[in-house]
Amino acid sequence: MDKIGDVARRARVSMCTVAAFGICAAMAAPGQSDSKPTAPTTVKGQTDWPVYNGSAGNSHYSKLRQINTRNVAKLKQAWSYDTGEKGGLETSPIIVDGVLYAYTPTQEVIALNAATGKQIWKFNSGMVGKRPERAVAYWQSGNDKRIFAAVTNYIYALDATTGKPILTFGVDGRIDLRENLRGETALQSVAMTSPVAIYKDLIIAGDAVPETLPCPPGDIRAYDAVSGKLRWTFHTIPHPGEFGYDTWPKNAWTTNGSANNWTGMAVDAEHGIVYVPTGSAATDWYGADRIGDDLFANSLIALKAETGERIWHFQGVRHDLWDRDFPSPPTLVTVRRNGKNVEAVAQTSKQGYLFLFNRLNGTPLFPIQYRKYPASDVPGEVTAAEQPYPTKPAPFSRQLLTEDLLTERTPEAHQWALEHFRTYVTHGQFTPNSVGKNTIMFPGFDGGAEWGGSAFDPETGILYLNANDVALTESLVKHSGSGGRATYMSQCSLCHGENLAGSPPAIPALVGIEKKMSADDIGSLIADGKGRMPGVPGLAQKQRDELVSYLMNGQRDDTVGSGPVTYDSTGYHKFLDPEGYPAVATPWGTLNAIDLNTGKYVWKNTLGQYPELVAKGMKDTGSENYGGPVVTAGGLLIIAATVVDKKIRIFDKRTGKLLWETVLPFPANATPATYEVNGRQYIVIAAGGGRDPKMATGGVYVAFALPE
Questions:
Q1: Of 29, 478, 621, 632, whose CB neighbour count within 10 A is largest?
Q2: DSSP state, 625?
Q3: What is the pLDDT, as a whole number, of residue 519?
């Protein structure tokens, strides 16, 4: 307890006068407010972006129209704020009462004047965050105004005016997400990458956990926004007597893990419902220890926000063996059916499917078929016989890789791709992995859709979403090796590969890591994680030491290891040609406009470029993209997201025509925000890179506006 309090007391907060920025100076004593939560103050000429993705329902929509299709070509940079840090950003800022709240790459929390970009305050927890954070959350009750910010495994409550921890919340201003989970607190690998959801006086949290065992369960938890006390828990791996318990082996909740919400939630405040998408159960690639459908992994769950009780659910993948998490926060929409408005929820998927449900009862608004898929031939594995397939809309990513969909970038690249493709297993979605032979996953484990989510235009009923359209390969190998090799195969091979080769540029190779890092640094990285890599503090010290030794010394052995996983993954390997470009035909990334009233596509564009290929005449290849779009009443669709070209783009939302683009300091793998202060509309984006290790990283917020 003393250590926790000491960290909070040592938090460094720098301030400048805030009264000039429109924040009320009269503050109730933190934690003493008895009034109900209230919305931010709205004044003439000011429109906030007070919630991650623009609204509690993740609409990504703004009613602003000052910047529109007629004048968007005049956009100029209004201000920029350089955090001075490296490491990349995935943060979408929120803007409340003219103040912008966001993160730096090391998870310091900042408040900026949203009209000028000048710093108001900065909060440093005393810890260096190593994983991406996508937003903070704002809560207000009377004069009690709080920023809830996740830093590593903690959630802090900060005074929105000063940035100081509210010491009456939790323990000295924070709660520890490792507590109230199965097992010893210190051994839990838990972090947050998406902000808490807000409902009345509750903050509702998911978390990011490892995708290999040992790892904690992905419990959904709600805390009191004032005191920080735990109010309810929903077990995504059901306990005895709970719905779904029989979809797992007996007592699986005591040993299995994950099935977590890492991507964020949506809240329907009117009906008191929180919508929670979940990811796969551990381990991703082999499920002999979790035979069954494994509810509530890979599910969209509608819970009573007040109590955590299940209302309805839909499982998008049964007994997942492909890392097919629901990767995006759901979007609450209203569509027309038989001449009437229907309140609905849209959920994107890594498969390239878009699911649409009546948000009150879970009834699909387009028919869902259950199709049969091949059984696994891996000993001990029992795949699900059927998986769901929405009949509308058509998939937004390609589903089956064939020879005519291989790259034509050069004749040499095509021939290389053809020769390798003919050695792979390729039967489309949900083909089980094989032992000793690579299977194609198309689209890859990064989608299809990713965490950026979708934007919905209430004026037209059109949903906009960006997607990846590249392939990867994976195979299984019998769990072998003692000591470090065995631990490496069970914990690390999924990403870094059987032979430490990684899948550059997104996943670095570990060959030669002993020349770049010390043994102590490698050990800390394993325990704490970094970037997309979760920490694994639950490893015994002996296992960690053996793993570090294996990485440092390259030892090999073939003795049979022990443990619950009988087969390991040889790793996700992107199907790239010898020059590092996707070995499939273009497009490699797309932007899609879908009419939810009909299920038909309005338009579809490529999204993203490789500057060096543009110079060679290949302009519209598309690229991988992370971060979502924003749609406005001014007729605009705003998106950055592309990994390599460092651009933010604005399209005509009706036609998909490109209206404006500019190059940023770094790639912007984040979702923009738009807001108005003193009658002037701004568009802001976080640029930091971090997805391509060949490119420099940073942390710069850039805002654009029309000339004054």
A1: 632
A2: B
A3: 64
Residue 503: pLDDT band by 50, 70, 90 thresholds? low
Contact (Cβ atoms closer than 8 angstroms) between residue 88 and residue 624: no
Q: How far is CA 520 from CA 189, 495, 524, 639, in A?
A: 19, 22, 6, 40
The b/e string for 251-283 (b: 16+ C-beta within 10 A; e otherwise) is: ebbebbbbbbbbbbbbbbeeeebbbbbbbbbbb
Positive or negative torsion for Cα 41, 46, 51, 57: positive
- Give helix 483-491 / helix 541-553 axis angle, nearest 10°: 90
Among 672, 681, 675, residue whose Cα is nearest residue 708:
681
Between the two ends of the chain, the Cα-to-Cα distance in Å is: 52
Q: Which residue bears the tokens 């102590």? A: 520
DSSP 656-707: --EEEEEE-SS---S--EEEEETTEEEEEEEE---S-TTS----EEEEEE--
CB atoms within 10 A of CB 434: 16
Q: What is the per-residue pLDDT for 588?
A: 98
Q: Which amino acid is at 310?
A: R
What does the pLDDT read at residue 321? 96
Q: What is the pLDDT of residues 445-501, one digit of tens each?
A: 999 999 999 999 999 999 999 999 999 999 998 876 556 766 776 667 656 766 776
pLDDT (tens digit, 9 = 90+) per residue, 15-28? Answer: 333 333 333 333 33
Using a 10 angstrom Cβ sphere, with 0-12 exposed, 13-18 middle and 19 or more buried, the burial of residue 617 is: exposed
Tell me which H or E stretch contains 222.
Answer: strand 220-224
Q: How far apart are CA 331 and CA 328, in angstroms?
A: 9
Q: Rounded to whole angstroms, how far apart are CA atoms 627 and 642?
A: 8
The domain 480-562: what is its CATH number? Answer: 1.10.760.10
pLDDT digits (tens, 9 = 90+) for 546-559: 677 677 665 444 33
Burial per residue of 455-489, b for 16 or more beta-carbon CB atoms within 10 angstroms, e otherwise: bbbeeebbbbbbbbbbbbbbbbbebebebbbbbbb
Angle between helices 541-553 and 519-528 (to 10 degrees): 130
The CA distance from 79 to 702, in Å, is 6
The answer to whether residues 131 and 108 touch, using CB atoms and an 8 Å cutoff, is no
Report the alpha-carbon distance of residue 657 to residue 352 in Å, rounded.
23
Residue closest to 114 by CA, chosen among 128, 93, 132, 144: 93
Pair 210, 565: CB distance under 8 Å? no
pTM of the model: 0.87
606 pLDDT exceeds 60?
Answer: yes
Question: Apex CA 266: angle with CA 260 and CA 270, to 5°?
Answer: 135
Contact partners, residue 538, CB within 8 Å, separation at least 6: 183, 187, 188, 189, 214, 215
Burial class (CB in 10 A: 0-12, 13-18, 19+), 564: middle
Instruction: Pull the structure tokens for residue 450.
Output: 């990713």
Name which of 569, 559, 554 is nearest 498 in CA terms. Answer: 569
* Residue 412, H or E segment: helix 411-421
- Both structure tokens of 539: 């490893």
Q: Quick count: other Cβ atoms within 10 Å of Cβ 542?
A: 10
